[in-house]
Design a protein that fits this description.
Layout: H1 13-47, H2 51-86, H3 88-97, H4 99-121, H5 128-157, H6 162-165, H7 168-172, H8 177-201, H9 206-236, H10 240-249, H11 251-277, H12 284-307, E1 312-314, E2 318-319, H13 325-331, H14 353-365, H15 378-381, H16 387-395, H17 397-400, H18 411-425, H19 440-448, H20 455-462, H21 467-474, H22 477-480, H23 491-502, H24 513-521, H25 528-535, H26 540-548, H27 550-553, H28 564-597, H29 603-610, H30 615-623, H31 625-628, H32 639-653
Antiparallel strand pairs: 1-2
């Protein structure tokens, strides 16, 4: 909020960081392990008195220098350029917190550059002992760069006791420092062997190519095996929120983990083949191919490490949108736009609602979401929501999506953002709630309480209390229940809510509580037809039990957090809606049968075919009628008609819709 935003809504800055960063670290880790490989390969050539190995090492040193100093240098500059544009607040904090660490890293990097150039250009011109010492100087400098960068990057995920004392060393030697250092060191040694396959593939001497391919393969294979226990150690020390995301709660991390697993298997088989079974197959194409699963594996690791910090860019210190935790806590319901220096709109009015919403999206949402892009597309994630549901969701976002930053701003700013997303992006109507004073307390209740508490429970709590006692109670909710936060609205909102609770409006009609609970808990993530499919065929008790165990259905979901009465009301609503939809679908299915099937097939034949089949089996059969009967080859149904007919046949064959 203190910096301008480089706005690329179609792609998002985060995706650009990921692309450049993964390319850079794939090279920079080679720059570390490759230095040790050069020294050991030269030593092997000297020990065996083999000029061919020494010449191989010299050629590999040239390849190494071009890749690491030239391409690695370009991508290194690119990293600083892109992160400064996309996450300026986080970069500024890291520089100020670890200024001497960065200074030391740049000194070691300068030593790297000088040592590597001396090493290559004096190859064969300097006595071997001194030349190897230069090589060792390069490797130590490169590893020290890794050592220093690892501490700062680890701080972003596990700040540890720095949160309490702001001590440089506490932040640097954070809980993930040592496991991450081992993981990255072994990865760098493994990459040294993989990159060496490329140089080996260009050797014309077949015997030398086989020897050095085996030698390089042992580097890669041994390092790969040592990386696995280090990675397990790394995961074991992660704090609980990050550990839960890494172990399956996040679908994006789960996808990255799947890519990592498949890449690891392919990489292991390729390295085993080249190092032990058939090193003769190491051609230029095979050598380059071996780098592909390694790149995907390393990319998945870095993606997972970044995603595990959500909703923070620096864990527990700064949210992904660049707003620090301290700044967020200080807002307390005040205007976000008024305090955002580079926002084009500073105040929300009836005339600039959408424009203000666009600015709020840019400064609060864009860091993670694109508009129609590949990365966290906001369109697909909000397609099921209307204006009222979107507004409520924004006000309760931390309760429903703990890996997303809280919405910061006033009620009117929440409406502006909802209007932009629902109205401008989706083209849906915007129906602003009435602004009559009598409804102010209801609006505050809807925005702060309805996501977790039924109105009856809140009214029971407020009964017998004065307005002042209710206001005092709202300010100390955490003392009543540690799971609750103290009321975060303004003093005026607290007063409005207290007046509403002291003299509440009539509660919603009996038929509506379930719908309200659905809008507060479900609509932000699930389109109703998906929930209907899940609820279809279940009894009231089965739906209620399923809501209490949603995490078993999908690790990304949390179990329903409301009281039992709300869970029963939601289950009743889902059951009623599902039964109504089923009845409507059955009627439509009978129409499809009458219009399409009855001319050729008697009812008894069709029912005997459908009897005992699940809806999926019936649907598959209707989609492949030609396999059922060659005379029906080419006959198809529209997807909606097929779904309706499937439902009717399933119900009818069980005696459910006569």
């Amino acid at each position: 909020m203190n910096y301008p935003v480089w706005y690329l809504p179609d792609t998002g800055g985060g995706l650009l960081i990921a692309i450049i960063a993964i390319i850079h670290v794939f090279i920079s880790h080679f720059a570390v392990g490759g230095g040790l490989y050069l020294v050991m390969a030269e030593r092997k050539g000297l020990r065996e008195n083999d000029p061919a190995i020494l010449e191989f090492t010299r050629k590999h040193a040239k390849f190494f220098m071009l890749v690491t100093l030239v391409f690695g240098g370009i991508t290194g500059v690119g990293i600083w350029f892109i992160i400064a544009l996309v996450q300026p607040a986080a970069v500024s904090m890291l520089i100020h917190t670890f200024v001497y660490g960065w200074a030391a890293e740049w000194v070691w990097f300068l030593v790297e550059i000088i040592a590597l150039m001396v090493y290559y250009y004096t190859f064969g011109k300097m006595d071997s002992r001194t030349h190897q010492q230069v090589g060792w100087i390069y490797f130590i400098a490169a590893w020290m760069s890794l050592f220093l960068i690892n501490g700062i990057i680890g701080f972003m995920l596990t700040p540890g006791s720095w949160l309490d004392n702001q001590n440089f060393w506490a932040g640097f030697f954070n809980p993930s420092f040592w496991p991450a250092l081992f993981v990255r060191s072994f990865i760098s040694f493994g990459l040294a062997g993989l990159y060496a396959f490329v140089t080996c593939a260009f050797l014309k001497d077949r015997e030398l190519r086989l020897r050095m391919t085996r030698y390089s393969g042992k580097w890669a294979l041994g390092s790969l095996l040592l990386t696995l226990p280090s990675a397990w150690w790394y995961v074991a020390i992660l704090p609980e929120p990050a550990a839960r995301l890494v172990k399956g709660a996040s679908p994006t991390i789960q996808a990255a983990d799947n890519y990592a697993l498949y890449s690891l298997i392919v990489l292991f088989l390729l390295v085993l083949l080249l190092a032990v079974v058939r090193p003769a197959i190491n051609t230029r194409a095979v050598a380059l191919l071996t780098l592909v699963p390694a790149f995907v594996l390393f990319g998945a690791f870095e993606w997972t490490r970044e995603a595990a910090r959500r909703p923070f860019v620096i864990n527990e210190i700064m949210y992904s949108n660049g707003v620090s935790v301290a700044q967020a806590e200080a807002f307390n319901g005040e205007s976000f736009l008024a305090q955002t220096r580079f926002a084009a709109v500073q105040e929300v009015t009836d005339d600039n609602l959408s424009a203000a919403g666009a600015e709020l999206f840019k400064f609060q949402c864009y860091a993670c979401h694109t508009i129609g892009g590949l990365n966290n597309d906001i369109l697909s994630r909000t397609a099921a929501m209307d204006f009222v549901a979107m507004t409520k969701y924004l006000r309760n976002i931390m309760h429903q999506r703990p890996y997303m930053p809280p919405f910061l701003g006033t009620e009117l700013e929440a409406q502006a953002l909802a209007a932009y997303i629902v109205g401008d992006l989706h083209g849906k109507p915007i129906l602003l709630p009435a602004a009559e004073p009598a409804q102010a307390g209801q609006l505050v209740y809807d925005n702060h309480c309805i996501g977790c508490h039924n109105i009856d429970i809140v009214i029971d709590w407020a009964a017998g209390r004065s307005t002042e006692e209710i206001i005092s109670g709202l300010a100390s909710l955490s003392q009543m229940n540690a799971m609750m936060d103290d009321f975060t609205g303004s003093a005026e909102e607290a007063r409005q809510l207290a007046l509403f609770l002291a003299t509440p409006e009539e509660p919603p009609a009996p038929a509506e509580p379930g719908r309200i609970i659905y809008e507060a808990h479900c609509v932000a993530c699930h389109e109703f037809d998906v929930i209907q499919q899940w609820a279809q065929g279940r009894s009231l008790n089965e739906i209620a039990d399923g809501l209490a165990n949603l995490s078993q259905l999908n690790a990304m979901m949390t179990d329903f957090v409301g009281p039992d009465e709300e869970r029963r009301q939601l289950a009743a609503f889902l059951l009623a809606e599902t039964e109504a939809a089923a009845a409507a679908g059955a009627i439509r299915g009978r129409e499809v049968y009458d219009n399409t099937c009855i001319g050729c097939h008697g009812r008894d034949i069709v029912m005997r075919w459908a009897a005992g089949k699940s809806s999926a089996e019936i649907d598959t059969g209707l989609a492949e009628l030609g396999q059922l009967n060659p005379m029906m080859q080419g006959m198809t149904l529209e997807p909606a008609d097929r779904a309706a007919l499937t439902l009717w046949l399933e119900l009818e064959s069980k005696g459910g819709s006569q």
